[in-house]
Amino acid sequence: MLEHIHEFSGAYFDDKTVGKSWAKDQETLLLDSQAPKVIENIKSLPTDRTQSENSRDKLIDYLTNNADRMDYKRYRKWGAGIIGSGAIESAHRTVVQERLKLSGQRWNKKGAQNVLNLRVVYKSGAWNKVIDLIKKKPERVA
Q1: Measured between alpha carbons, how far is 116 from 32 in angstroms, rounded to an integer?
Q2: Where along the chain do its domains lie?
Q3: List of the chain residues with pLDDT < 70
Q4: Whole-angstrom Cα distance, residue 71 to residue 5?
Q5: Do 119 and 126 contact (CB within 8 A), yes or no?
Q6: Rounded CA gap, 31 and 127, in Å?
Q7: Distance between CA 88 and CA 96 in Å, rounded?
Q8: Model confidence over 72-88: pLDDT tens digits?
């Protein structure tokens, strides 16, 4: 999402310093869960630049369609250290695909979810918690 803001500002503003400052202001608003204000700010920009009008409309559509997924203030409060689709896509590759897409494997939904739950714990460095749970309450683990 932030890459879209910076890409737009680079194309829209002739003065790159002004563009970077504007993009940084929008980034601050987005990280404070104020996507509607960012959309309003984009809409308030003059539209006399034909080459930027299409990218402006695309950015407004993108932010409008994804505003419900941009509650970054809340996500950060929860401790989510990564924000952005690139990080999520990378995690999907390493956590999900590396394990579930091995040759010859077939999964039902419950089995895949159980394996993914364990992979998330393992990849997050909390595997010792699983081992401790198994040692303390082996009847619950099966």
Answers
A1: 31
A2: 2-76, 84-141
A3: 48-53, 81-85, 87, 140-142
A4: 16
A5: no
A6: 31
A7: 11
A8: 888 778 777 666 667 67
